[in-house]
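S.,

Sequence below, as promised.
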Amino acid sequence: MKAKRSLIFTKLILLILIVYALGSLVSVRSRISQAQARTSLLEEEIAATDQANSRLAESIDEVGSSEGLEQAAREQLGFVYSGEIVFHDIGN
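The prediction came back faster than expected:
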């Protein structure tokens, strides 16, 4: 009778451990899924930032050239050559 109780107790403890392990497994899988989703979002953000950095580097290179410097002076500061006539389109 005592051996039978011991066997039932052992099975009960084993069942509890199995249920706990399964619950932990489900929890870990959920966290892994969330981490993978976050990783995907971060990779997209990194790609977008890399593209923005490339565009900025190109802009820096363009301004570094004499043509780029002239274009920036004309567009942003309104500079013109002496004697040059500038027309402004007021239709838009």
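Helices lie at 2-64, 66-77.

Coffee later?
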